[in-house]
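1st attempt posting a full record on here, be nice pls
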Amino acid sequence: MKVPVSAEVIFWISLGMLAYTYAGYPLLLAIVAKLSSRLVERKEWTPSVSIIISAYNEERDLAVKLENTLTLDYPASKLEIIVTSDCSTDRTDDIACSFAARGVRFHRQPERLGKTAAQNAAVNLANGEMILFSDATTHFQRDVLRKLLPSFADESVGCVTGRVIYTERIESNIAAATNSYWNYEFLLKKHESSIGSLIGVCGCMYAVRRSAYIPLYHEACSDFLIATTMVQQKLRAVYEPDAVCFEEPNTRTNQELAVRVRIITQTFADLWRNRGMLNPFKFGFFSVQLFSHKVLRYLAPLFLISLLLTSALLAWDKPLYAVVLVGQLGFYSIGLLSWAVERLGLKTSWFSLPQYFLITNLASLIAFSKLVRGERYSKWEPLRESALASRKMEPLE
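the predicted structure (as tokens):
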């Protein structure tokens, strides 16, 4: 069977792009960080801080979140807590108001426009020199402000994010894989931060210099775009691994898939609207980071599909391609098996990584199709397991 030479060309291009996306880019970051790192000048100081907690139907978690925030190791006179509700329909607003006597301020949006719009409105009400954005499900380690804020002593820093530790209340394949995925992401953040600036922050906990905050359009994926707005102002977004918070991961595939689709769809749209940031002649290595970390990562399923199809065509003539084909089919079969095992109510972390790899790439495909069809997200629907509102995550000492 004679196969066109173009099939081999496509095969090797696809394989090369995938190798660069998942392994070559991290290696490039490590090399550049080793040769040309940019230190952050840190020093202890206590500026005034406004903590903004975005909420939509968070009655399960909000009270515990506020209790956790009120116990932070920071001068109370310099700490302001604002809950911004995006037209919640449960007891979220009542719970937030019940903390008014303890200094918690409450804002309710007049119209449900999404998380980013709610954040913008809360910033307009904030008095702090620094703004710390957080979610109702995020629990801080007590010293989190003591770890985040010293980086702002460096005038080149406009935004600081920390490390998220995912604590599994319910063991599941997805929860186990989420930790592995984020360990990989935090490795990239460490190197990106040391080189210059992050290309995105952790949405559940990031601090911004109030003077550098630019209101974002409602559809924006704020935790991605905030880093772009910093670079546009010739500032940096940096990573502080000692600033720790805790999150509960999704435990079911359909939940994680829905979250990934929403985030990637928003990020695709943000990349398109800010495509000028991909110009390396204007934005230097940040453009390389943006292209490698986001564009290529989200286009990976296209390379995976072309790799599978071309290796299937070429496998009839050359054993090398047959081996690659069998490896792909085996990997995907393991991921699908893990998915099927989960649907049966069984749990095994052995196959969780292939399963999560399938989820993230399927999410990219779905998000790309939504972008092409003109679909956008602005509102967010929290996905929560049922639990008692009194559930706690204990911070580390």
